[in-house]
Amino acid sequence: MADQNESIPAQEEAAAQDPAAQQNAELLALLHRLFGADAFTDVEEPYGLLTVTTTREQIHGIIAGLQKDQELQLNFLTTMCGMHWPDRAGQELGMVYHLHSLTRNIRLRLKIFFPIADPVAPTLTDLYSAANWMEREAFDFYGIIFPGHPNLMRILNVEDMDYHPMRKEYALEDGTREDKTDLFFGR
Amino acid sequence: MAVNDTLEGTHKIIESAREQQAHLNPLAPTVNDFNQELTTLNLGPTHPATHGIFQNILQMDGERIISGVPTIGYIHRAFEKIAERRPFYQITTLTDRMNYCSSPINNFGWHLTVEKLLGVEVPKRAQYIRVILMELARITDHLICNGILGVDTGAFTGFLYLMDEREKVYEIYEEVSGARLTTNMGRVGGMERDFSDIAIAKLRAWLKTFPAVMREFEAMFNRNRIFMDRIVGVGAISAERALNYGFTGPNLRAAGVDYDVRVMNPYSSYQDFDFEIPVGTKGDTYDRFMVRNEEIWQSLRIIEQALENLPAGPYHADAPHFYLPPKQAVYQNMEALIYHFKIVMGEIDAPVGEVYHSVEGGNGELGFYLVSDGGRTPYRLHFRRPCFIYYQAYTEMVVGQTLSDAIVTLSSMNVIAGELDA
């Protein structure tokens, strides 16, 4: 515990002032102790919520470990969703997980990114029953495949749809329309 | 020849139907044995007892449910996609249409999320006004759910009394926002208008008359032998399973977990009020019914406290970059005109960042995960819809029960199709 805190002096300093930052520092120390410091990249705290990025190889082990952990009891899967960043080569698709400890009231956001050519992420259905439809939604919207999912089919859109509509290449309005350009205010 | 062809075709159809059945339920017998024959029942999509458009394909052994396959998405409107094209203030109207039984909570939940992103501090009066309206919305949400539970068990009268009360709350909404069901209430930074004297008068009058109606409703149902026989022990779920399924709100509290966002992560000054969180023990339909009834009383307590201590002062934040100026000023004042134009065109300076904010909706934790890349619209907006998450457990809760039990279980879970499908 002590040596972990030494490696993150900035968090420790912030922790002295703010209880939320203190919780985050404690949580980060736990993450580093359980899974090793190199399991996480991009540690941030946007709006007080600890956000870490990891890899798809490790995410299942991390969430399973946090579910079992008795110290902070991060065993409530609040939500998860897919994301698409077309400009990030090799990291186009992502999944974002929100975990919550109902006993300690600590939240954690985990992210993984992977290439769009290989849109595979591990399923959490063996840990959380709630993950079932959330993963079906991510598959429906972004085409992310979850090997081992018991019933990976579209959930909100029709079965015979042949594309994944939340990907950024599908503009909301018909891309062939020329009478309605949105040069100044559109993306 | 022709007859044989037809027969063969029929056999093929039967065979494929059996294969489909076997896919739905591996236990379905493939032999044509009358005693083991199962019935496939389509409950929905437009069945009056589902109170919304979603389908359950049930395998029935007589009256007992063997397995079920839920199909949802009938009113999917791609809100998350549409939100990626809209400036923040235009997304409020999308949130209305999620849980349309308690629109103001959705509206303010969204505004609170954007205010968190933009760092806008909302004055106390606006926060209290929001609390009053959110608690009114919670009451109407629970009134509908519990009233309909009565209808589904054959007691129509209670529902009519409660609809009458909901009507009066809608008149208060009308006075505050001009709308009744899809309210589009409030703005980023506060309310669009203050409570008028008429609104306060209507609210005070309603607070006087409503408790008597609620007491009457409770007297009619809470210890009613027929009603209790129908719903005690029906559709129960343990706290452990409920947590694993991501339950929140009254359904989770009925199972005995006292998680309430209003207490755990207070927003909009909920920490100023004194109220209790009712919990159940068994997580069955009766517990859900009782938790909702008690929450109505607690919401009334909050409203009374908020109305009693309603602070004076402005009803919106002093944030001209984000809050529309008064219309009169737009015509007479250059700065106001510029701000008006920029806000309406969505050209506000949103910081790059991501924020998750949740409020206690009518059905549980209603969360907004907003990723902003600094553009005029969200880069990604994900709604955590409590219905969508807990409705997964429905099959597990009704397997082994009778069809009529499945109906009251569905009713007491308060599945709102708009929120389910977004």
Automatic annotation (TrEMBL), chain A:
Catalytic activity: a quinone + NADH + 5 H(+)(in) = a quinol + NAD(+) + 4 H(+)(out)
Signal peptide: none
Topology in membrane: Peripheral membrane protein
InterPro entries in the record: NADH_DH_suC, NADH_quin_OxRdtase_su_C/D-like, NADH_UbQ_OxRdtase_30kDa_su
Top-level EC class as recorded in UniProt: translocase
Pfam family for this entry, one: Complex1_30kDa
GO MF annotations, alphabetized: NADH dehydrogenase (quinone) (non-electrogenic) activity; NADH dehydrogenase (ubiquinone) activity; quinone binding
Highest taxon in the source lineage: Bacteria
Domain NADH:ubiquinone oxidoreductase 30kDa subunit: 52-174
Localization (cell): Cell membrane
EC number annotated for this UniProt entry: 7.1.1.-
SUPFAM superfamilies assigned: Nqo5-like (SSF143243)
UniProt keyword terms in alphabetical order: Cell membrane, Membrane, NAD, Quinone, Translocase, Transport
GO cellular component: plasma membrane
Complex and partners: NDH-1 is composed of 14 different subunits. Subunits NuoB, C, D, E, F, and G constitute the peripheral sector of the complex.
Family statement: Belongs to the complex I 30 kDa subunit family.
Function: NDH-1 shuttles electrons from NADH, via FMN and iron-sulfur (Fe-S) centers, to quinones in the respiratory chain. The immediate electron acceptor for the enzyme in this species is believed to be a menaquinone. Couples the redox reaction to proton translocation (for every two electrons transferred, four hydrogen ions are translocated across the cytoplasmic membrane), and thus conserves the redox energy in a proton gradient.
Cross-referenced PANTHER family: NADH DEHYDROGENASE [UBIQUINONE] IRON-SULFUR PROTEIN 3, MITOCHONDRIAL, NADH DEHYDROGENASE UBIQUINONE IRON-SULFUR PROTEIN 3
Protein name as catalogued: NADH-quinone oxidoreductase subunit C
From TrEMBL, chain B:
Entry's Gene Ontology cellular component terms: plasma membrane
InterPro entries xref list: NADH_Q_OxRdtase_suD (IPR001135), NADH_UbQ_OxRdtase_49kDa_CS (IPR014029), NDH1_su_D/H (IPR022885), NiFe-Hase_large (IPR029014)
Transmembrane portions of the chain: none
Protein EC: 7.1.1.-
Keywords recorded for this protein, A-Z: Cell membrane, Membrane, NAD, Quinone, Translocase, Transport
Subcellular location per the Swiss-Prot or TrEMBL entry: Cell membrane
A GO molecular-function annotation: NAD binding
Enzyme class: translocase
NADH-quinone oxidoreductase subunit D domain residues: 152-421
Assembly: NDH-1 is composed of 14 different subunits. Subunits NuoB, C, D, E, F, and G constitute the peripheral sector of the complex.
Family label: Belongs to the complex I 49 kDa subunit family.
HAMAP family in the cross-refs: NDH1_NuoD (MF_01358)
Free-text function comment from the UniProt entry: NDH-1 shuttles electrons from NADH, via FMN and iron-sulfur (Fe-S) centers, to quinones in the respiratory chain. The immediate electron acceptor for the enzyme in this species is believed to be ubiquinone. Couples the redox reaction to proton translocation (for every two electrons transferred, four hydrogen ions are translocated across the cytoplasmic membrane), and thus conserves the redox energy in a proton gradient.
Record's protein name: NADH-quinone oxidoreductase subunit D
Classification lineage: Bacteria, Pseudomonadati, Bacteroidota, Cytophagia, Cytophagales
